[in-house]
Specification:
Strand 2 and strand 3 form a beta hairpin. This protein has two domains: 154 residues, MHC class I-like antigen recognition-like (Murine Class I Major Histocompatibility Complex, H2-DB, Chain A, domain 1, 2-Layer Sandwich), CATH 3.30.500; 89 residues, Immunoglobulin-like. By secondary structure, it is an alpha+beta fold. The strands form four sheets. Strands 8, 9, 12, 13 and 14 form a five-stranded antiparallel β-sheet that branches. A four-stranded antiparallel β-sheet has the order 4-5-6-7. Strands 11-10-15-16 form a four-stranded antiparallel β-sheet, with no helix packed on it. It contains seven helices and 16 strands.
Length: 324
């Protein structure tokens, strides 16, 4: 069993520990030790009862062996303190089986074999139906209100996503751009791709929104482009409630290439810097030489030192480029 408040995991029960355990201290204080012990005992009974129930449902499907699962989804919701959408649903082997209609107090069979338990729970098994109805209308809502009141700071925390964009060039020439938004809260987020700052593109693949161990989330979105499309610029656009406005993170371009404007700027800077260095060398030589005397020639410098200086200057010039 996993219990969640909105998108925050607050408690769990496992068959190996056989105990309902809160995941955070404020949850334990809100629910109280007595309530947690009561729920633990209820899950003991449910664990044993579900084994019997699963065997009955296997018979309804004429199944005699194999691995089969029973799942239960229970929940209630508040909208501006008004109750809405209570839910008590059963699934069998990953498919809807039967659910409780809180308005009519009856069970709704999703498949033909579920009519048997529906009839039983509405006649001989009325005690179970009354328990479900009472839980949804009273206990579930009361517990939810207490948790929302005490956990407001956790529920309303805003953690902005950390966004990074990567590029992978395949041997066949295709290019995959990947955008990773990680560590954000709350869960809702929208990630899209922008071309040249204007056109919004549909992603090629997405991981969906996935949980981290620290109750934050991450998501990865990918976009495949052809070599012909690589002449454009692409950016990952992220929208999240923690951000004042959508964030754009530009994808790296092809290795070894620079946009024409940047390249022209670097070339111009190199020419200006080269001219300044050349002028400085000539001026330095003239000053160091001093006034020439008749019949006296200044000592020649070693060619190796000049070439080293030139080489060093050339290396520095070649290293000029855009900085992160």
């Amino acid at each position: 069993m996993i219990a969640r408040l909105d998108d925050v995991k607050i408690a769990y029960y496992r068959s190996d520990t056989r105990e309902v355990r809160p995941t955070q201290e404020w949850v334990a204080q809100t629910l109280g030790t007595e309530y947690l012990q009561e729920k633990t005992q209820q899950f003991w009974r449910h664990e044993e009862g579900s084994k019997v129930e699963t065997r009955r449902w296997m018979q309804l499907y004429n199944q005699t062996g194999g691995v089969h699962t029973e799942q239960v989804h229970v929940g209630c919701a508040l909208s501006d303190q008004a109750p809405m959408d209570p839910r008590f649903q059963f699934a069998y082997n990953g498919r809807d089986f039967i659910s409780f209609d809180n308005q009519t107090g009856t069970w709704v069979a999703a498949v033909q074999p579920a009519f048997a338990p529906k009839q039983h729970w509405e006649t001989a098994g009325k005690a179970w139906t009354k328990f479900v109805q009472q839980y949804l209308q009273s206990e579930c809502l009361g517990t939810l209100q207490s948790l929302v009141l005490q956990g407001r700071a956790v529920l309303e925390q805003q953690v902005p996503p950390k966004v990074s964009v990567f590029r992978r060039d395949a041997l066949d020439g295709s290019i995959t751009l990947s955008c990773c938004a990680r560590g954000f809260h709350p869960r809702p987020i929208h990630v899209s791709w922008v071309r040249d700052g204007e056109d919004i593109l549909a992603e090629t693949d997405s991981s969906g929104i996935l949980p981290n161990a620290d109750s934050t989330y991450y998501m990865q979105s990918s976009l495949e482009i052809s070599p012909q499309q690589d002449r454009h610029r692409y950016a990952c656009r992220v929208e999240h409630s923690s951000l004042g406005e959508p964030t754009l993170v530009w994808a790296p371009g092809k290795k070894g290439s620079l946009p024409p404007g940047v390249l022209a700027t670097i070339v111009l800077a190199m020419l200006v810097l080269a001219g300044a260095v050349g002028a400085g060398v000539v001026l330095c030589r003239r000053k160091s030489a001093g006034p020439r005397k008749p019949g006296y020639a200044p000592a020649a410098t070693k060619s190796g030192e000049d070439s080293a200086s030139s080489s060093s200057s050339g290396t520095d010039l070649r290293s000029v480029g855009p900085q992160c």
